[in-house]
Amino acid sequence: MSESTSSTTSQKSSDPQATPKSWKSKTPPPGAKLTPMMERYIEVKHQYPDSLLLFRMGDFYELFYEDAEIAARVLGLTLTSRDKGSASPIAMAGFPFHALDNYLQKLIRAGHRAAICEQMEDPKQAKGLVKREVTRVVTPGTLTEDALLDPRTENFLAAVHVDKKQVGLAWMELSTGRFQVTSCPFEQLSDELARLRPAELLLQQGLEESPAFADLARLFDDAVVTERAPWSYVADTCLDRLKQHFGTNSLEGFDVEDASPGVTAAGVLLDYVQETQKTPLGHISSLENYRSTHTVHIDEATRRSLELTQTLRGGHREGSLLHILDDTVTAMGARLLGEWIANPLRDLDTITQRGDAVQELVEDSTLLRELREELDGTYDLQRLAARVATGRCNPRDLVCLSRTLKLLPRTKALLTGRSSDRLRDLESRIDLCEDIRTLIEPCLVDDPPLNLTDGDLIRPGFNTRLDELRDLSRGGKEWIAAYQAKEIERTGISNLKVGFNKVFGYYLEVTAAHLQKVPDDYHRKQTLKNQERYITPELKEHEEKVLTADQQSLALETELFHELRTEVCQHVSRLQKIAQILAELDVLACYAHTAVEHRYCRPELCEGATLDIRDGRHPVLDQLLPSGQFVPNDVLLGDSGEQQECEEGDESEERSPDRGHVQIITGPNMAGKSTYIRQAALLTLMAQTGSFVPAASARIGLVDRIFARVGASDELSKGQSTFMVEMTETARILNAATDQSLVILDEIGRGTSTYDGLSLAWAITEYLHDITKARTLFATHYHELTDLVETLRGVRNWTVAVHESEGDVIFLHKIVQGAADKSYGIHVARLAGVPGDVIVRANQILETLESDRRDDQGKANIPQRKTDRATQRQLNLFEPPPHPILEKLKSMDLDSLTPKAALDRLYELRGEL
Fold it and tell me: Which end of the chain is more exposed for a tag (fewer CB within 10 A), N or C?
């Protein structure tokens, strides 16, 4: 199957670069009159028309025609030409072969694919044209090299199959071999893609432009979209491909239904990986059925609003929840932590097991320190195992793998006899893999070269033949010494010496005084002033061995390494299991370390719909702000029945369960309302990943979904205003939330007129209270909503404490029970630097509106703005406007005024201020 018929790629375009008109930048069709080498290039290029073809020529990768122009622009290469003397030279650009990873990284980041065409035979031994074949196609979703990947972030390749009723979704992390599949309603696809954030997305041709996918276009901004031909999506073919790869009769053993749309997506994905990698994929050994019912559902808007893995502004990892919590010491652990944060659990038993393990590590500081020290010495076993399975590991990879396995006995010993079920289970499943270590350690030197071609990677003494070749390649000093001694004894020439130069090779040197003793089998090679140089058949035979020993030594080392790699490859599944255990230990230890360092508490979790957090802190701001500056707050939600379900018999007044399930939170801007409601959601999410939380204490009822309608953003590309986006997201909350959900809302209704917005906010609150019954925190400036406490049993009013003193306002950032009586918006405007005249005028208008001064027609009787010279100001581009009093001062004749008259005049002017 050729690339030309199976896939096309939507690539990020760059500005074109000017090209000499005489260059044949367009690739000619097959059969054009070219050199044999260029004919092969064109032949391969037509098989991979949507990839940049990196054509190996000696020590360089070369690109020609359009590919050369793109590479020169993206990689900053010099654009030159081939056949410069011809009428139409060919555009050409290239780079050294050893710089491949660096240039590949730039190409992939620019959204391109690269087909790597290697020399399949030694040019010195080739007869005629060197054989060249594409060994793999590198795309954003199929990266495996460390140099091309972020070690702490997963790099997903995903495939979508749209069925009549559902959507099949499959995704894979090729660098680790993890392969997952699910089926979901079409409306949920955007949430799943937001959760995965794939680097590359496979779609059926034409699907991206279909109306059904129009609203998902913005999710493709960070992903390269690769289209696959419709015949790739034949369900039976996809199923057969998966069964053949896994060697099974069905997929039931993986808990996957053969007829599900997810299987079709998985088959398309596997086909694409096999097509691009052109290598065994033994590390893809299972297919996981992802069930969304086992995890907390978090929609795309909520992930963005809560900044779980990247910030709302700029999309940076730094400043996100993941960045703050990531104190893992391994790349495997960092990736698993990201997965846990993206997929909080709903299973209380599993959460409790994680919490027990974290608590044991928190309480045993020695165990925590020593465990993290051991883990810190490990390498990325997941990606090492994948490179072994695909045949792309180098000698240094295997040594790093061996060093990691060497740490397992100590790690297992540290976990022996632990009390928590999770730590005991992990310890019982640690396979020490001593047999794998005994394969690697005796074979490879401690510090091998990165490339096979460098040689000297096999340990001395491992292979007798290799030792002999190495001895020969280094000149065979022992053989030379023995041969020289033998010839001295045979000829009686006491000062006979064996020498070497690059012209004659090895020779025997005899001084003029002993020429009569030279035997007949010596052949004169060179005559010097006082000596003669000879060669013998035996010496020339040894010389031939020495000259070929280097090549033979390198070939034998390569053979031995390939044998070793093949043997280790048989144990890839064991290595993957160990890697998963080490990753989980790292995350659990990370949670414990963070809890100790930042004074986190273990949350109590239960099945009831309660949220009781005392002195909670926003996990991100708590670390970013100077120590002690963040003001902690309580979050209290849940009714009496739900509270008793969490802890029977707790009737203390301090933890009174009668708190309602809807909070109306009022208070000024910049006072901390948005931070408070986000904090509640983040602490709930953290608790359901098994983490401790930044609080004095916390009791949290499990949630099935978290919804956040926070912040404002226009979708201009879709013609949607901020208000439309707000209402769309709110509608989704109202339609999808349950009585087990957590909903946080910020300023709903502010994008329209005051009365429209208030009416909507009022009705939305009633619906959440009466119908949905979700735990809800609603931050608003509509103070009228605080009246709902009179009619809705489950509503409670909370506000941000404010301290006023002599006209100044201090926001205390403390959430207390009650309702705000002011918005303090004008005060915030003054803090923001709004001109004083505007502030004064705003206070005048506010006073009128608050006193409800209206005329006969019912209009607000707002006083007219003064326009006399004392208040009118005209801005000038070059100098400040004149002031009336300054003008009077300038016009005064000071020399004619008596001191008393001048003082009287000064008092008059002050009165005019």
Answer: C
